[in-house]
Design goal:
Layout (H helix, E strand, L loop, with lengths): L2 H15 L17 E6 L4 E6 L12 H10 L6 E6 L12 H6 L3
Parallel strand pairs: 2-3
Antiparallel strand pairs: 1-2
């Protein structure tokens, strides 16, 4: 995969992540700051490091598989690896300005 194609796929991945919402908060997981890192290999494998708002989050079982299945649909993606990490712990400071405005914070 060329660097330009990789950049385009990176943008598409982020666009998809911006359409996945935490069911308890009207803000995307990307704007909430739950996505820590997105790496795409030259062979089209997307590796997402993400967290949840807490280890007891009610969507812990459903949100990572949703990220996986939604990204699998993109052209150029050959596989998806979603890794849920707890370090650093999520905090309100990780939210984008847009998310803070949406939540009146």
């Amino acid at each position: 995969m060329s660097e330009a194609n990789n950049q385009s796929l990176q943008e598409q991945v982020i666009d998809v992540l911006r359409t996945i919402y935490d069911p308890e908060v009207p803000v995307s997981i990307y704007e909430l700051g739950l996505i820590y890192n997105v790496d795409i290999s030259p062979k089209g494998v997307v590796h997402v490091s993400m967290t949840l708002t807490s280890p007891a989050c009610p969507v812990a079982e459903s949100l990572p598989p949703e990220v996986d299945s939604r990204l699998q649909m993109l052209d150029g993606v050959t596989d998806v690896v979603v890794e849920v990490v707890w370090d650093p712990p999520w905090s309100f400071e990780m939210m984008s300005d847009a998310a803070r405005l949406e939540l009146n914070l």
